[in-house]
Design a protein that fits this description.
Blueprint (H helix, E strand, L loop, with lengths): L1 E6 L5 H5 L1 E3 L15 E4 L3 H21 L3 H4 L4 H5 L6 H9 L6 H13 L2 E7 L5 H7 L6 E6 L19 E2 L1 E3 L4 E3 L5 H6 E3 L7 E7 L5 E5 L2 E7 L5 E6 L5 H13 L7 E7 L6 E5 L4
Parallel strand pairs: 3-8, 7-9, 13-14
Antiparallel strand pairs: 1-5, 2-12, 4-10, 5-13, 6-10, 11-12, 14-15
């Protein structure tokens, strides 16, 4: 089985260097990436349980950290008495604290992840005209056909069991709703609107610190990762690829020893349907 990476003509360096970009969430084209709705930081039952069991100890630790002359003015009994003896009152006050704002917490999580992970977006389709239009510069780029069974796509990473392997994107009609206390990693990393279902996406996630190369483009940091040449099965040139770019693709593939097994194909416009079809490049 194969998965496909759509690329613009300007990224032919992927073939030349054998390195491919894993993109930080903020640079992906879906503004909802890694942004579920946090309805709460934690369920009230959990917050109350933590409050009941943890509040006295927290008070004692706080008092212990104060200077001796300050402690004289307080006692644990005083602090635990009115108005704090009413747990509901305390819960209501806690809910008003910025640190417990669920949206702010979600945004902090997003910023944290955005600075630490990159995503490689792939598709199970090689012939979708919208994908060719959106991701290859209007059919002027190319697509990499990659071997889904290659060990590169089935790794394990100590940081997270989801990292380093192919993951199926889930398309939903409703935006995920969750709390920070019961964070669903599968929905966090893989849920997208059903409007994107035509992409039939699979993805890999890897820590940015594992990148083999980091470049800058203005303020944007680009993280590149080595990929094995034997994972590449073919290169498919777009139906509107410029002749000089096509020649460059052919030269890169034919001149690199790591690509001796790689086939070069081309998409052509079908004569009777709104489709593009794939043919060997020497038949065009």
């Amino acid at each position: 089985m194969a998965v496909y990476k759509y690329l613009r003509a300007s990224t032919i360096g992927v073939l030349e260097s054998g390195r491919i970009r894993f993109t930080q969430p903020r640079y992906l084209n879906d503004p909802f990436e890694l942004l579920p709705h946090f309805k709460e930081l934690m369920p009230e039952s959990v917050l109350e349980r933590e409050l009941v069991h943890g509040w006295p100890d927290a008070v004692r630790r706080a008092l212990a950290s104060l200077p001796p002359n300050a402690v004289l003015a307080f006692s644990v009994a005083d602090v635990l008495s009115a108005p704090w003896r009413n747990r509901r009152t305390l819960l209501a006050r806690l809910r008003q604290q910025p640190a417990l704002d669920p949206i702010a917490a979600r945004d902090r999580l997003y910023e944290w992840l955005d600075g630490r992970i990159g995503i490689l977006s792939l598709s199970r389709k090689a012939d979708d005209i919208l994908m060719w239009s959106h991701y290859t510069g209007s059919h002027r780029g190319f697509v990499l056909e990659l071997d889904e069974t290659h060990e590169y796509f089935h790794g394990e990473h100590p940081a997270n069991s989801l990292f380093g392997k192919l993951l199926e994107v889930t398309y939903l009609e409703r935006r995920p709703h969750m709390s920070a206390a019961d964070l669903d990693q599968l929905q966090l990393f893989l849920a997208k609107s059903s409007r994107w279902a035509y992409e039939d996406e699979v993805r890999m996630i890897r820590p940015l610190e594992d990148a083999n190369e980091m470049r800058t483009d203005g303020e944007e940091r680009i993280h590149l990762y080595d990929f094995p040449g034997d994972a590449l099965m073919s290169v498919i040139c777009g139906s509107l690829m410029e002749p000089q770019v096509q020649r460059q693709v052919v030269e890169v593939v034919e001149q690199h020893a790591r690509y001796t097994h790689v086939r070069i194909d081309k998409m052509v416009v079908d004569e009777t349907t709104f489709q593009v079809r794939r043919v060997p490049i020497d038949e065009v």
